[in-house]
User: Fold these one by one.
Assistant:
Number 1:
Amino acid sequence: MVPLKLSTMISEQQIKERVKTLGKQITEEFKGEDIVAICTLKGSYMFYSDLIREIDLNVVCEFFGVSSYHGKTESSGEVKVTLDVTHPLEGKNVLLVEDIVDSGLTMAYLKTCLLARKPKKLKTVSLLVKPAAMKSDVSLDYHGFTIDNEFVVGYGLDYQELYRNLPYIAKADNLN
Ligand code: 5GP
């Protein structure tokens, strides 16, 4: 694999500050209630682990595995469930945590899937949103940053399973 030429798009400090704000807003949204926070694997694990530490509520952690890219840089439109949550969501306050919403296909699929389980309330948060998502039907309750239509890696996001461990978001100059 040719190594990516990376340039920082969103710094570690910017992420930290934004995640803190999102945590406060979500705490306010569910004020005094318990929530089930669902981490969509693999991409959102880093955002998820930082975000839940900024939420001042009782949080039950669940993990939902989906894959839509299969190693490519464009969405295939096909969403494959690789891991399901372990407890029923009926009557629960659910927060779905995503890494990035691009076409919105994955988010739309996940919302349909989770709403079918009859949660009391379902709220969605994504660290990043691309312009195509803004034009799609999918609604998002909270997001960290809107970015240009460029392929990004880091802070949980990969390119062919690499670069997830970068503490910041970078764009790949030799891919876009
Ligand atoms: P969507 O279904 O909204 O088109 O795509 C959502 C999924 O595509 C994300 O959860 C993520 O896995 C992947 N994805 C979309 N854009 C990017 C990107 O710029 N970089 C990386 N690494 N993954 C992306």
Number 2:
Amino acid sequence: MKKIKIAVDGHSSCGKSTLAKQIAKHFGFTYIDTGAMYRTIALYAMRNDMIAPDDTINQEALQANIGNIKVSFLKNGHATLDGEDVENQIRTLEVSSKVSKIAALKFVREAMVDLQRQMAQNESVVMDGRDIGTVVFPDAELKIFVTADDEVRAKRRYDELTAKGEEVTLEAVLANLRERDLLDTTREESPLRKAADAILLDNSFMTREEQFEVAKNFVERTMQE
Ligand code: DC
């Protein structure tokens, strides 16, 4: 079977990772959550006091250490930081509120993009993120750009966080999401944008299953090409 790369890009909390995981599971591809990689770097910076209370980042210290930070994934998909499973720690609202600034740093992006390309060397991958179709794999065989209305996205994220016991309000989640959308789309380094050859998938009014059916057809068509 031919080896393919599938890029799933889009806004925060729009169901990209759910879709990417469904595709990976169905077709037996490797799933790579690139947002988790930036979140892991943000967690590292927070733990090492590299982010001041006013959100200023000690870029020098982070840059000096970036080559030594080990970001990886376990077989079950959990992200690890220097070997420690940090899957729960990287999903908090606190990390979510810091990560966009970390992801805007050029040296952080360069390090993560290198790692992402290495991860796709020997296998078919489904990678979700913001710049996969535009920067990481401009030659991806299939590019899907997922989006949904921001209030729909906030409600989904709110339900996810409260189900895990986090005490948050819908307003705070919506505000965080809008702020991240703004930072992600307006930053200088690899801003979030749809690649010209990506297929747009708006899932505001779709169930997960409906969304997967649509995407499955895209993948099957790509594999026949
Ligand atoms: O998809 P997510 O919410 O877990 O992503 C976390 C942050 O990382 C978000 O602010 C966007 C950023 N990100 C990025 O800049 N490039 C990627 N390929 C993936 C995520």
